[in-house]
Write a structure and sequence with these properties.
α1 links the parallel β1 and β2. Helix content is about 45%, strand content about 20%. The chain has a 5-stranded parallel β-sheet, with helices on both faces. α4 packs parallel to α6. The protein has a single domain, classed as Rossmann fold, CATH 3.40.50.620.
């Protein structure tokens, strides 16, 4: 018997609708390939720095800000893991801090991931930022050591009914 193509799948989420759709697809793939699923959320340290630069938060509040973001990420990850489709899967939750694409690629290498499944866009990138630096997904595709499956929202993957989702 040939070994399964993917045995460890990384799904980075920022909890945007697009990343939730990527999680749904990653769960399905993990079941098909009997793979371990790694759920990663990266706390974007640049976002905290931006809040501080705008005067919306003081540097002395950094530890409290990070703690609030960590707590919110744990709560939202628990909500994803409560979904009916997740039952029976081996899922490991990971929380990282830094530049999202760097942390995603680093985690994929360290964990010896075979596939990254992620949303094609998240909820926090401005148009100007995307023009000059590219999206997180684009940067991951360029630098990852393994295949990257980018999921648009709404997904073009047929649902269990066998029908394509309607275009918005």
């Amino acid at each position: 018997m040939t070994p399964l193509l993917f045995h460890k799948i990384l799904v980075p989420v920022d909890f945007s609708p697009c990343s939730r759709e990527a999680f749904r697809v990653a769960v399905h793939l993990a079941k098909v390939f009997q793979a371990q699923l790694l759920l990663l959320h990266v706390i974007d340290s640049k976002a905290l720095e931006a809040l501080n630069a705008l005067g919306l938060a003081k540097p002395s509040e950094y530890p409290q800000q990070k703690q609030k973001l960590r707590r919110a990420a744990r709560v939202q990850a628990r909500q994803l893991l409560k979904l009916e489709d997740v039952k029976g899967l081996e899922v490991t939750r990971l929380l990282s801090e830094g530049k999202p694409f760097v942390e995603i690629v680093r985690t994929a290498r360290m964990e010896r991931v075979n596939l990254i499944v992620m949303g094609s866009y998240g909820g926090h990138t401005s148009d100007v930022e995307r023009i000059f630096f590219g999206s997180t997904a684009e940067q991951v595709v360029r630098t990852a050591h393994c295949p990257v499956l980018c999921i648009p929202f709404p997904s073009r993957v047929p649902h269990e009914t066998g029908q394509e989702p309607a275009n918005p």
